Amino acid sequence: MALDTTALTVFILLFAFVTVLGFGASRWRRGDLAQLQEWGLGGRRFGTIVTWFLIGGDLYTAYTFIAVPALMFGAGALGFFAVPYTIMVYPLLYIVFPRLWSVAHKHGYVTSADFVRGRFGNRWLALAVALTGILATMPYIALQLVGIQVVIGAMGIDTAGFIGDLPLIIAFIILAAFTYSAGLRAPAMIAVVKDVLIYITVVAAIIAVPMHLGGYGQVFSAIPAAKLLLAPPPAGSYGSFSAYATLALGSACALFLYPHSITGILSSSSGRVVRRNAAMLPAYSLMLGLLALVGFMAIAIGVQGMPEFAAGFKRYSNNFSVPALFMAMFPSWFVGVAFAAIAIGALVPAAIMSIATANTYTRNIYKEFINPACTNAQESQMAKYVSLVIKAGALAFIFFVPLQYALWLQLLGGIWMIQTLPSVMIGLYTRWFNGWALLLGWIAGFGLGTGLVVSHNFAPIYAVSLFGTTFPCYIALAALAVNLGVTVVLSLLLNLVASDRHNDVTVASDYV
User: Fold this and answer.
1) φ, ψ for residue 44, nearest 5 deg
2) pTM
């Protein structure tokens, strides 16, 4: 593909602008960045609007911007499960997570594993929660690079070899520098720009493309019938219906258990801010639904027949459908704006994810097991160093590991994270579970979920047969059911023999 100098110029200018914002963020709402809660949580002072942009920028990533339309483009209606799952997640946010904010604020907790350590008094259970979060987030960070790679390639820059990797290296050096210096304040400030650009891009697409084609009726008439609706289930099975429903439910249960989601919540100034955002964040679900339709628009425009798509498809498969649509429909300057929105949409969540995993390592591994006597300054400095290592690891991952492996690990991430639900979400409401029972339940769910995914060639759905009926089910939920079963049975036994409820350092008033 020929180099698009206009799009590239606009892209570089917008990227430079957010870089300046990132470095300037250290002087915004000044705090002592030698304290972990200042560097890693922005001092817990973000109000409703900043938190809205931060959590939105955290959850709706560049990979979302590319992958959701690509799934609609390739698989059709099944890809729309991302919309109901983001709708289901906000009642959970409203009901459950203000309690986590409250107890974390009163005890100085920075991570969900901190809460588990205080609630159950079991350092090994807290370690399991911490390692799960780090393991699940690493490929997530790497996949943000996919969005940047796609748009860099779409502008005509060869992404093969060292020269092709250089733009990614430069982007992540910049990311590493401003997150090291400003902590969570940097992505919080940049998230505002990122979201404005994405909303502009999506609104332009949903207006311009149907107008060009003659209306949404023409868009949907161009979609093959097999992609418009879920396939009817065969006799004796719930088929794609239960697969769709459980994918949505399981994804909703896992989403706010990720370290970067917890970081966004704990950076809020109050539990009321968390509740307000639970009411306001569905605006992003509307945007996501419109964004998903872009995949259908790419089919209707006929990007499959374009030479640019053929060239991009060799490298990026269906992920190139969104860039191909914008290149076909919009002038080069607006293509630069859209591609900058995607690239900046990678930097914001990658920054938050690296900060969140650095917080987790520092608090729940380094301080707990390696250097319990570390000072606040040493703790903050260690988190800054670890955030650099994590970014370097993500960069190496995408350069040296096939993309398919990153996709598989990201798929496993949701299955792994949901295994922490009994310790974190249910633990916010009851101390009946025994800490050791929770740990053994986590092992059972983690092992079963991983084994089922690997044995099914990394397909996320497992066909459960009950009473002669087949329920294709998201593996995360099946593994969680086993996790809960083991936890309940062992808690009954262990609470009779050696209850550990005295280890709980929290009290009921901490959760209000």
Assistant:
1) 55, 40
2) 0.91
Residues 155-159: contacts with CB under 8 Å, at least 24 apart: 155/3, 155/4, 155/7, 155/8, 155/11, 155/335, 155/336, 155/339, 156/1, 156/2, 156/3, 156/4, 156/8, 157/3, 157/8, 159/315
- pLDDT tens per residue across span 386-413: 999 988 888 887 777 776 666 677 778 8
Nearest partner of 86 among 337, 317, 334, 256, judged by Cα: 256
CATH top class, domain 37-414? mainly alpha
Which amino acid, 469? T
Q: Are 40 and 184 in contact (CB under 8 A)?
A: yes
End-to-end CA distance of the chain: 58
Query: Can you tell me the distance from the alpha carbon of 32 to that of 183, in angstroms, rounded to the nearest whole number?
Result: 11
Confidence of residue 1 (pLDDT cuts 50, 70, 90): low
* Domain map (residue ranges) of the chain: 37-414
Alpha helices in 362-434 (DSSP H): 376-400, 403-417, 421-424
Average pLDDT over residues 53-66: 80
Q: Is 236 helix (H, G, I), strand (E, B) or coil?
A: coil
pLDDT tens, residue by residue, 120-163? 999 999 999 999 999 999 888 877 777 787 788 778 777 666 66
Contact predicate 178/186, CB 8 Å:
yes
Do 3 and 153 touch, CB atoms closer than 8 A? no
For 223: left if phi > 0, alpha if psi spans -120 to 50, otherwise beta; the answer is beta
